[in-house]
Amino acid sequence: MTIGIAVTGIGLVTPGGTGTEPTWDAVCAGRATARTDPVLAEAGAPVRLACRVPPQERVRGRLWRFDPATRFLLTAAREALASARLDPARWDAGRVAVVVGTAAGGISTLEAQHRKLLASGPGALSPLTLPAFLPNMAAGQLALELGATGPSLQTSTACASGATAIITAALLLRAGACDIAVAGGTDAMVTPLCASAFAKMGALSRREGDPGSASRPFDRDRDGFVLGEGCGVLVLERTVHAAARTVRPLALLAGYGATGDAHHPTAPHPEGAGLRAATREALALAGHSPGEVDHINAHGTSTALNDAVEATAIRELYGSGNRPSVTSAKGVLGHTMGAAGAIEAALTVLSIARSTAPPTANFTAPDATTAGIDLVRTAARPQRIGLALSHSLGFGGHNTVLAFTAA
Q1: Which of 36, 60, 264, 394 has its CA at a distance of 20 to 30 angstroms from the CA of residue 81?
Q2: From CA 312, how far away is CA 212, in angstroms rounded?
Q3: Pick from 154, 156, 23: which is nearest to 99 by CA?
Q4: If we measure between CA atoms, which residue out of 143, 156, 211, 216 comes closest to residue 187?
Q5: Position 272 confidence tier, pLDDT thresholds 50, 70, 90
Q6: Nearest in space to 190 (alpha carbons), one of 27, 41, 360, 1
Q7: What is the helix (H) or strand (E) element at residue 200, kind and residue range?
Q8: Phi-psi bin for 3: left (phi > 0), alpha (psi -120 to 50), beta?
Q9: What does the pLDDT look like over 291-328, one tens digit per residue?
């Protein structure tokens, strides 16, 4: 018997705003969030553009004790559980899993404490340093916050980490290891070290004179991504479990695929072979063909290589027939690293639930490598979406594809 997996809740903390509605509004409006970042500027980083999460009005409880990535996660998870109508005080805690993806863990804390060590010696370090920066601790702190005693896992596949967490949660649900999974991705990599390292690689946009147009997925004039931060959380349940609670799913996670390129440490396979294989895997599990795909939320980083390879894979998979609409949220939100796959999965679910394909901000003209795909431009497009895919690619050759269908 096939086990259905329902998406019953969403929580978002992004540069577009704290919460699902502010983020969705920003993405649908194509309202870019890139700015000159004062922290990066003060540190003398070679590129000072970033997409920051807006300051929160107040810090609840003991959130100040945690790395920003964990704070984002706890905030997004609260919203996701509220939207799913779940109360941790009333569930079977042993049947709840927590799965969180991250590319860099508590890198903000690690950098800050290392600066203290160099400046003032070991005595200056906070006793909370290790619990704040260890990569597994975001999942651990969320499980503690929720009282969830089922599997608690952290995944790391670079920029695909959030999507990998969702796949891992689905596997736990299908294996019967849990009835509910709180899954997503979080990262806070807008730091001097990360920005300088990405700049040294030539991965970042240097359009500092016009920050709002710096992130340009698939556009002819793209010159790199803008570093972002944030978190996305999905509540996944067995469909029978959601039905017993009389909760209508926002969408169904019908399929997923994961492959490795085995090609290069950072560059994607030039023909997009791994992405195409992951797509076929996801569609096969979902019981659909490429011709049935209505919409794709692309990885779309705004880098020359990624966009060209992803566009090539899309053209070869769908040909000139029924072409799905394509969008990338990174023109608005920047590249939120390990959070991107979960944030974009949430946006894909919202596209289905609200019959809307958001635009690709700052896309004005294709070049020879990105032509031939149906990019949504200028404004959000009303569209009935029955089957949508979310692409995520990561350093190390990771490819993940999530297939969502209407509930």
Answers
A1: 394
A2: 27
A3: 154
A4: 156
A5: confident
A6: 41
A7: helix 192-201
A8: beta
A9: 999 999 999 999 999 999 999 999 999 987 779 999 99
